[in-house]
User: Fold Transferase from Perilla frutescens var. hirtella.
Amino acid sequence: MASSLTYALFLLLVASAAAESPTPAAWPLQFHSLLYVNYSGSLSMIDLWYDWTNGRNFNIVQDQLGSILYDLEWNNGTSFFYSLDSAKKCSSAQLEVGILRPNWLDGAEYLGQETVDGFLCNVWQKVQFIWYYEDVVTNRPVHWEFYTGRSIHVMTFDVGAVLEDEKWQAPVYCFEKKDAQTDPRSEYKVVDVGFLEPQLKGILGGTMQL
Ligand SMILES: *[C@@H]1O[C@H](CO)[C@@H](O)[C@H](O)[C@H]1NC(C)=O
Ligand SMILES: *[C@@H]1O[C@H](CO)[C@@H](O)[C@H](O)[C@H]1NC(C)=O
Assistant:
């Protein structure tokens, strides 16, 4: 009798745990990640330095056998896109929102479990912009994919790693006055850089609540 009651309670617990959908882990306040990116067959590696504590985020993008693009974002909405080669290109953008908040995945819709890159993952989607895969065992992100088809695979995830301050200094040519005719965005297709689309950041980032 007592044991069947215990068993009934156990079933109840299992059922209520199953009914409650898991939620994605908040991003650590500071981490470094190496990301492998496939955008419709164009491959790149991104060195991602997320640093919420200091209000900054850095994507260092190495295109396959190509150039390196530095995409430096500040929480005041200013972003710099530059190269460090002899071309000395730099453009900047002023967005309405700052960098992604650690809890930017709050409110994502749970879709269940799927094995990706060999890891069993919980899967969520948010506003039909992003599909996010997190390892069931470690809660680390494994993979995410944008509505554009840009596909990100997380190769390393070092919680607490911080890039030295001097590396966050945009080069001097980012601050030189430009010819008024130059559309800063024409130098780099802003949408094609970084691990997040700017419009996605606009929707998910900053103060906007979803
Ligand atoms: C990149 O993604 C495309 C689909 O967009 C796929 O056909 C291709 O196999 C992928 N390549 C690599 C190296 O992951
Ligand atoms: C935002 O912060 C960066 C880094 O301190 C600075 O270079 C930039 O001018 C600031 N932008 C605005 C709009 O204040």
About this structure: The chain has three helices and eleven strands. The chain has a mean pLDDT of 85. The pocket of 2-acetamido-2-deoxy-beta-D-glucopyranose (ligand 2) is lined by residues 74, 76, 78 (CB under 6 Å).
